[in-house]
């Protein structure tokens, strides 16, 4: 028995947030890149590089939400194209990791070199960049808790906000100490932060692609809840996983007691999965007590 998905993935519902964040980020990226090149600030260039990754990541996230809602005309995508949003999140991880490595290489390469970044330009661009990032963060925060796709974009922008704070800090430190090395130190700190966030998001992406149980659902709890239903003697072959953010899926075999009404058991089990565990799509097989279940050997 199958229940419907609902009205689309969490990423699709929050697509407008991605659109506005993309416009803000893309608009500011060119400004920061030019300022970084003119001021010779590695912290500014590092943040501009990360913002470039933001532009690409947000663009991929928008494309993924569009693909996810595209109807299947082949008849072969039985789960639709919702996983596109998870692949976009994985792409965000790769972009974040790549940018952090690039920043680190550039920072170490500049150690000992006499570059003197223009601290005044760094301060102005850093403040403007922080304002842009805060607006984008406020927009994306509303969907980050529901969609892994939006969360990837949210973490990208969060790292950018920290980058802007780093640029401001570097500008202030250079102004008051006269030591240009602060530009390199701040750039390295940005690189480490971005890499840590990339690893954290990457673990969530791999959990979905590996079809692990959703992080807020314990399979043993589902088994107990189903076994407590009147007429259910046993629950086996339970599988529960996340198709995409906001779409958890489950399958299970239910062995019913003698005289139990299989339709009543099926309806009750479906309701428990939907209301207690947030699983709106469940495929349940009801078996009588005298039936020998011959499932897959794997």
From TrEMBL:
Gene3D superfamilies: Cation efflux protein transmembrane domain
InterPro entries assigned to the protein according to its UniProt record, in alphabetical order: Cation_efflux (IPR002524), Cation_efflux_CTD (IPR027470), Cation_efflux_CTD_sf (IPR036837), Cation_efflux_TM (IPR058533), Cation_efflux_TMD_sf (IPR027469), CDF/SLC30A (IPR050681)
UniProt xrefs under PANTHER family: CATION EFFLUX PROTEIN/ ZINC TRANSPORTER, RE54080P-RELATED
Ranges of residues in domain Cation efflux protein transmembrane: 18-209
Localization annotation: Membrane
Topology relative to the membrane: Multi-pass membrane protein
Family as reported in the entry's similarity comment: Belongs to the cation diffusion facilitator (CDF) transporter (TC 2.A.4) family. SLC30A subfamily.
GO cellular component: plasma membrane
Entry's transmembrane regions: 18-38, 44-65, 86-105, 117-140, 152-174, 180-200
Coiled coil: none
Gene Ontology molecular function terms on file: zinc ion transmembrane transporter activity
A Pfam family recorded for this sequence: ZT_dimer
Stated name of the protein: Cobalt-zinc-cadmium resistance protein CzcD
Principal location class: membrane
Domain Cation efflux protein cytoplasmic residues, every copy: 214-288
Keyword annotations: Ion transport, Membrane, Transmembrane, Transmembrane helix, Transport
NCBIfam families for this protein: CDF
Keyword Kinase attributed: no
